[in-house]
Amino acid sequence: MYALLDNNVVADDKLNLLKNRGFKYGDGCFETIRVINGSIVNAELHYERLLKTVQVLKINFGQLKFSSFKEELDKLISMNEMLNGARIRYTVFRDGDGFYTPDSNDARRLIEISPLIESGYRLNEKGLRCGICSDLKLNYHTYSAYKTLNALPYVMASIYKKESNYDNLILLNSEDRIVELCNSNIFLIKGKTIYTPPLSEGCIDGVFRKFLIKFLPSIGYKVVLDPIHINAVNSADEIFTTNSISGIQWIGAIDKKRFLNSATQQIFSKLILTIF
User: What is the pTM of this model?
Assistant: First the structure.
């Protein structure tokens, strides 16, 4: 059998990668993992989230132990000689064929790595300029907390971000409550209390988010997981974002509202000492 790829005739057996269910149906999940000085950051948290995600998606991942998971990542880092900063993408997709109904639940996985300019986490010197995304809404559903291959809302939000010349956009749910940003979770500082949306608002269960929520009480902050209406940004002292690749990034402006970053700097300085 033959197919057309960009109007070129290609034999069916040359299209194996494009014929997988990850490509056809977004049937899978992924982890984005930070490497600093050749070492994996939060490896156990990524492993735990990956196992939970494949379980929810009913993908048969087999008996991959944490030691084997980490050995795979270390092997990838070593053979690519990534001794400084790098980003790993660990993709799992359901094997087999079928249409919406798969004929197999077995897993295949693809692990990729690319270098980063920064060898470690660095707090941004200039605050992020953020807008509020009005073109789409994120809402809670059974799979909203997981990093599945169905990432179209985040792709479109990132396109809107680029078109509007912002560094990032705040994404809301249908109740005009804050969910997250295009590529990161969000935290609002008010005195010694830090607020972040719960998973029930529709945000991703971020690995760095989980790490930070556990860390903040040790340096004197109370963490509150409550719904946050977008109007709450006007009374926040500071706002910052988190993800596994960038760590913490502070927001300098949301539309016309300006923010400083003194508390965020202190949190970052104390947090960075605990990474390794």
Answer: 0.93
